[in-house]
Structures are given as structure tokens and as C-alpha cells.
Write a structure and sequence with these properties.
heterodimer; A: 649 residues; mainly alpha; 26 helices; 71% helix; B: mainly alpha; 21 helices
Chain lengths: 649, 466
Amino acid sequence: MPNVTAISLIPLLPLAGFLLLGLFGRKYFKNSSGLIGTVLLLASTVLALYTAYEYFFVYGKVAGVYEKFVALQLTWLEFSPGVSIDMGLIIDPISVMMLVVVTFISLMVHIYSLGYLKGEERFPTYYSYLGLFTFSMLGLVLASNIFQIYIFWELVGVSSFLLIGYYYDKPSAVAACKKAFIVTRFADLGFLIGILILSFSGGTLDFATLIERLTSPESNEFKAAAASTFLGASALTWGAALVFIGGAGKSAMFPLHIWLPDAMEGPTPVSALIHAATMVVAGVYLVARLFPIFSVAVPGVLEIIGWVGAVSAIVAAIIACTQTDIKRVLAYSTMSQIGFMMFALGVSNYGGEAGLGYTASMFHLFTHAMFKALLFLGAGAVIHYVHSNDMKDMGGLRKFLPITHITFLIACLAIAGVPPFAGFFSKEEILLAAYNNNMAIYWIALITSGITAFYMFRLYFNIFWSKPAPSPSERAGGEVHGEGGFAMMMPLVLLAVGTAAAGFIPFGEYVSSDGKPLHAHFDLSFSIAPVALGLIGIFTAFWLYKKQNDKPTKLATSLGGIYKTAYNKFYIDEIYLFITKKVLFNLIGRPAAWFDKNIVDGLMNLIGNITEKISEGIKKVQSGKVQQYAIYFLGGVIVLAVLFIYIWK
Amino acid sequence: MNEFFILMKQELVVTAIIFLLLFIKIGKGIQHSSLLSLVQFLLLINFGAGFFFNQSGWLFGDMYQTTPLIVFQKNILSLGVYLISLLCADWLKKTEHLPEFFMLMLSALLGMFLMISSGNLLIFYLALELATIPVAAMANFDLHKKRSSEGAMKLILSSAFSSGILLFGISLIYGITGTLSFALIPGQLDGSTLQLLAFVFLLSAFAFKLSIVPFHLWTADVYEGSPIAVTSFLSVISKGAIAFIFITILYKVFQPMGEVWYNMLVILAVITMVIGNLFAIRQQNIKRFLAFSSIAQVGFILVGMSSGSEVGITAVVYFVLIYVFSNLAAFGVAAVIADRTGKENIDDYKGLYNTNPFLCWILALALFSLAGIPPTAGFFGKLFLLTAGATKASYTFITIAALNMIVSLYYYLRVIRAAFMDKNENPISTIKLGPSVKLGLIICGAGIVLVGLLSWVYDYIHSLSL
């Protein structure tokens, strides 16, 4: 049986770190705060690994199927008998896998930050925020009901808001954290309404009960939810679609992705944690959590999920080819990879062989966390070294940053899908799932994986090859320091080992849509096309960027409009600006203001003038405004009376 | 006779405190700081009095009634007054007429108590006036400031106007039904045109007191002109009291017209949320900002009220309790800063975190709660209001309300951003807080965190409103 103490300690230890450092850090732990946070998280990680071992190898499998356990269930609020808000801990294959991912990546980031932010004034604050974020993310993963997941979902949003805005003296960071918060909040509104609809039609908030009721066509709840319609779709469809919108916002799916690139203003280790491995995959996790509902009850929504994922994957990959800020390239690449995970869920079915997409999606989530965190941390080391985010300030760094160079190369090979690195295995599974289910998405995915290899190696060659290396004295500031200490290199090496090895985990044995082991059949000939495309991508990047030359510029000029459109991120931000500023402000705001200024004020002024004339004698004592108030008041009464008596009678 | 003392105990305690202050004023007088401590202690007793010897019953025919729910509502108001006496201690010590200020405030509170307990439109009207006129005198308490007098003047004139309309409505009702008793009126209502007109008049008076758009215009001027202690009293305690009696009158007296006032509440709620939000976005002065945002909050209260069932009562009472903590915390921080530095603009709050982290965290907590972000209590308050409003299954309405939550998030976040993240060459200097202010802020902060997380609070209110 699950060890409740161990499991509840996993999120509680980072929370303790947050409280301790947040309250007393600045006074008592000025220098030791990083160490305290790291040690607490190390304990969490050990417990997570222990839980995973126990679950997968000791008690989890009952009669050949991995069961769902609810380790702890506390009733928090009882609405009416049977409907209550609970707080619980759920233990099943995906939550256990996520526990390992979140604690491990967070631990790496904790260690890395010891070196990266050394000497920073607000060190304790930073580590307390990290603790809060890790706690919220673990709480989200362990949530046993849909309401609990929402609460932690918002907490994750708040803590990432704090972390992105950590460099609060940078205006762009402040703008970015606000943008991230508001865009995701907007999506969360959909999520909240979706939760209300789903729980209302399911009559419960608990995941297991909800899934059970809404996936069996005979249950009363299912019949009622399918029967009540709004704008041509059933309540169930609406609920599921709105929940997905929440997930799409958090996971930066097209067209709600605009906050992710800007969020790169935060400290780089934070990007590695939040925007690569944990928070942004929350949307994927959410869809996976409710997968039976999507798959059985509302296959239409699942198809939309597939398409949204595929479009996000290719759009982001194209944009990534044109960006010159290395963190933004990684941000778009993250969006593209999450698109892969999303459409893998979208093309999956529930149960058996047809559930390959589900396993593949979770597998990719797992491997992606490794190599993307590695890429971000590597990029952090580069930025640390050259003090710039821009590719044109880099080049030839392989001699100065040997460890970063090798680990970064491993990560690039992994994401490009070159065997035998982790990305190859998970991506192959995704492609296979798409091939079996939806040929159009398969083609998009195939092309995207070629583009992925190209832009990742464009990044790699631009950082480490391209120009001859500048001598340290030529660089801005002339500061000379090495790669960063042991604290920064160790996470890189550990993650590189993970990236190289994770692909060999027989993932289907442990994680599948229905809990039964899934034996993936690998056909070598199937892999030929994607690997070949990946290699073409890599060689194109090699040809264009190995040495500094004018080929890239020529290419960009010859592509003209297309290049420009991609460079400007398909103008999505501008479209949003246009809608909010031009359409909303001009079409609604302006006329309203005009009406207010000319008609309402004019009328009021007229009345005011008349009153003023009449009351010339006593004018001095009065400010002349109270009459207006009375007029408005009376107007309100009259309008209400008219509405009441003539319209609603 | 015994029953009289037990049922009216809260009113009697308040009256006793008023008389005590009167004697102190007539007599030699006490030094202000010790007098303030005494008053704070008395107010704490007043708050405590609500927890003992609770009984429900009627007095004076059907003029006065009390139930556990009413006692609880009065407790919320007493708690609010106690918190104001703590939070505004700095300003209160400086005023020349401290005993008078509390006499006025407690008279208003007495009026509110009677109003909540009223079982008859006549006593309701009298209590309403008792709850209003002293507040106008309080608004004038910055005696040397012209704006303060202007605000008081506007309050009294507008109130007189609304009272006129209210009395007109009450007389119409009396004319139609031949009774003023809450218990007897519903049986006589059949929805005739004249009755509807009378109801509109009553509704308008409530809308005025609650600052519902378009009856809200007095709010900004009065709030800005008055001292912060009075502004917070007006925007929290007065609003709460009126919301309590409004919901009673709607649900009990006008219950037969439920369909009609549901539509009305929907429209008023939408306008109030939208306009309140739009105005709050543009405000630069923190008092005006909180004033307009409180208008938007009232719009949310209307959403919950529209449900017409005991879920609605629970949600509204629960929300007001949370609102007392959240809004008073925000006003408390504003009061401290305005009092020590004279700064009232949001731009002045830039860099507050670097100099006053405690104030800054309390402010952030309060604003997060007002914006309805989990896991602060404000989120649960809003959630239950929305759920209550959703019982009528008007999804468009609920969606508009939820969208307004996002808009409000934008401007609350603006203040938080200024306080935490923006840089300032000349930030507010570090303020040393007095013990009572600190206690008040801690109580508010604890309330914001705990009321949401401790589920028995909601359960308890729910058990009362059945």
C-alpha cells in the first residue's frame, strides 16, 4: 500500500523551505538559504524515487494492471451529501512519473542556481519562490480531484508570476510576468467554467468517480450531460473543451502561446524549471488525467486537441528558425515539443494497442523534461559566460565551454531525434501513433521533426562554431571567468546522462492509458524517414552556419516575406494588440467615451446650466454637482420603473 | 422583561458604550491615547457580547426580531468596527474629538443593528436614518479640510433625496397593503403596476445605499473627501449592513415578485460590475481606487443575491465576512501610509516592498483576496457567489461576472506590481507601526488566509441560513 507519510512529505518539504526562507531567510539564512532549499529538495527527490520504486515494483501492479490509489483523502467542504471538495493524494503511473520529473528537475535547478545566481542580493527570496513553485507543482500532480488541481494550478501561476518577475528592476521582466499571468488567467477562466460544468454534470469533483460516471453511456449523469445542449454542443463537450482551453493556456498552445517567449525574461534556471519541464506540461498532464473522458465521451474534442497540438508544433518550429535570442529559440522549441505531446494524446485511443499515443505522449514528456532542462541550463551557462542572449554575440565557444558544449550537443541530438538518444524513442512512438491514426497529422509531425533538427543545430553551430572565438579581452566587460563552478556543471552532466539513457526505459510497461502494460512494436524501417529528415536538417544547418558566411542572409532575403512573417512570429502578438487596442478600444471604448462626453455630459450640462441660472443666488454655497447626482438618481428610478412595469410585467 | 435584555443585548451594549463615552466627554475627559485603548477594549467586549446568550425571538409586536443568523451578521459588523478602531489608531489619536467620533460611529452601528433586526418597514426606515446621519457628520471630521465638508454635504443631500424616494415607496406599500409588517406584506402582493412602482422606489433607495450603478455617483466624492477611517466604515460596514437587510427584504417581503426582481438584479449587477471596473482602472488615488473597486465588489454581491435561495444568503454573508477582512486590510495599509507620509497616489506606492515589506505583503494579500485569487479567502467568497448565481442557470450572466473578475485582476495587479516590482527614487520611508495597527493588520491577514481554508466557517453560516 502507498506510504502516506512519504508521499505527503514530498510536497511538504519544499513548502517548509518556502515558509522558512520566506519568513526568516533575509534575517538568518542570508548565505545558507540556497543550501537549505537544496537539501530539502534532495530529500523530496529521494522520497519521490522511493515512491516510484515502491509503486512500480512492489504494490502498484494488481493482477497485471497498474491501479490508481488514493493515498489520503480529507474532506474539506461538504456541499450536500455526496458532493464535497476533498484534498487527496493520487498515486497512479502518471502522477508517480511526474513526481520524479518535477523533483529531479527542480533539484537540478536548485543546485545549478547555487552557482548561477551566486552573490545575488535576493538569494533567500529566490529560493523561497522556488520552494513555493515546487510545492504547488507537486500539489497539482498529486491532486485527486478537479477542484484541488485548480487551486494548485492557480498557485503555480502565482509562483511563476513571482519567479518571472524576479528581476523586478527590468521593465521587460515586469511586463512579461504580468502578460504571462493575465493570458494564463484568461485561459484559467475557461478551465474554471469547464470544471463547474463537468462537476455539475458528473455530480462529483473526484477524478475517479467523474471518469467512471462520464464514460459509461448507461449512467444517468452521462445521459443528462449528453442531452442538455448549448449552441449545438452538449454540456459534456463544452465542459471538456473549456477544460482543454485552461490546459492550452498553461501549456502555451497556439494561439494562447504569446506569453511563453516573453516569460524568458526570468532567470534562466527558472525557465529550465517552469518553461521547459514542469509548469508548461501541466496542460498535457491535465488532458492525460481526464483522458478517458476525452477519449470515450467526447472524441470530437480530442480531435481538436490533436489539431491544436499539430498546428502549435509546426508554427512554433518555423518561428524558432528565425529567432536570434537563444532563449526565445528554446521557448518556441518547447512550445513545438509540447505540441507533439498534445497531438499524441489527440491521436490516441483508450486502452490496448490503440492507446499508444497516450504512452508516447507521457514518454515524450519524460524525455523532453530531461533534454529541454539540459538545453536551458546549457544556454544559461553560455549566457553567464558571454553576458548576452543574442546569437550574434556568440560563436566559437566550444573551446571555452567544453562541458557545456558536449552536453548541449547531446541534448540537440536528442531533440533532433537521432538514435540512440532519448528523444528518438519517444518521438518515434508519437510518429507511429500518428501514422496509425491520422495521416495528415503524421505528415505535419514528420516535417516538423525535420525543421526541429534544423533550428536546434542552427542554434548549436551559432553558439559553438560559426565565428572564430573572441579572445576574452575582446568581449564586453572584459570579465574573464570559466564555465561556472561544480554547482553549474554537475546538473548538466547528470541531465546529459539522463538524456542519453532515458530512451531505453521500456516506458510502455509502466505507463499506458488503461494501466495494462503496452509492448510497443518497433519497426526499424519506420524510423528511416524521420531520422533521414533529421539528418538533412542537421546538415542544412551545418552547411549554413558551420562557418560565418553570407548564405543565411541570402537565404533570408530570397525567402523575403515568408522569412519576415516567421521572424515576426506570424504577427500573433500584433493580432492580439489589434483586437484589444483597435477593435475593443476604438469600437467600444471610443464610442462609449464619445457618448459619455458629448451626449450625457452635454445633457447634464444643459440641465446643470438651467439649474445654475435659476439658483444664481444660492450658487456660491453649492458645488453644482449634487443636483446632477440627483438627476442621475431620478433617471435610474425612471428607467427601472419603465423596465419593471412595461417590460417584465 | 428578561427576554428584552437577552434579545436586544447587542443594541444595549452599544448604547451603554455610547453613554459611557458621553459621560467621559461631559466629565473631565481622558487623555486620547488611553481613551482609545479603552474604546478598543469596549469594542472588543461589544464583539464578544454577540457570542453569549443567543436566542431567537420577536419583540414589540413584530417590530424587532432576532435569529442566530442576524446575531452573526451583527457580529461581523462589530468585528469590522473593532478592526477600524485598531487600524486607524494613528489618525484617531490625532483627532480633536475622539469621544464624539466614536459616539457617532456607534450610533450608526446601533442604527445598523436595529435595521438588520427590523421586522417592519417603519422601524427599518428609522434605523436606516440612524445609520446614515451620524456617518455624514463623521465624513466631515477632517474639520480643516474643505473636501471633507463638501463630501459630508453631498452625502447628506443625496441621502435626503434617496430617503424621500424610499418614504414615497413605503407609503405606497402601506396604501396598497394596509400594513408595514414584513410578515404580512407578502400575502397582499399581486404584482399590480402600483406595487411594482413602490418596489422600484424601495429598490432605488437600496441601490443608492449600496452604490449600485447608476445610483453610485456620490460614492467617489464622499469617499475621497472623508478621512480613511470613515471611508472604510462606509465602504465596508455600511455596505455589509445594507446588503444583509436588502437580502432579507428581497427574499422575505418581496418573495412573490421573485421573477421580476431577479431580472432587475441581473441587469444592475452587470452594469455595476462593468462600470465599477472601468472606473477603477483609471483611478490614480488609492482611496478612489478602492472606492470604485468596492462598487464592482457590490456588483458581485448582487450576483450571489440573485439566486433567491438559502445558498444565496450563505454566499452573501460569507462574502461580506471575507470582504471585511480584505478591504479593511487594504484600507488599513492606505491609512497608515496616508497618515504618516500624506501620500495617497498609487504611484507613490512604488518600491514599497523594499522599505515596508510587512505592509506590502498585507496589501498584496488583501488585493489578491479582493481579486479572487486562490487560495485566499476572496476566491472562495467569489466562487460561492458565482455558484449561488448559477443556480438559476443563466450562463451568460455568470460568464460576464467571471470575465469581470479578470478585468479586476488587471487593476489589482497594477497596485501589487507598483508595490513589489516598480522602482522608485524616492520611496515611502520605513514606517514603524504602532502595536494596535499591527494587531489589526495581522488579524485581517489571518482572516484572509483562514476564512477560506477553514471549511467550518462556510458550513456554520450555511447552517444558520437554512
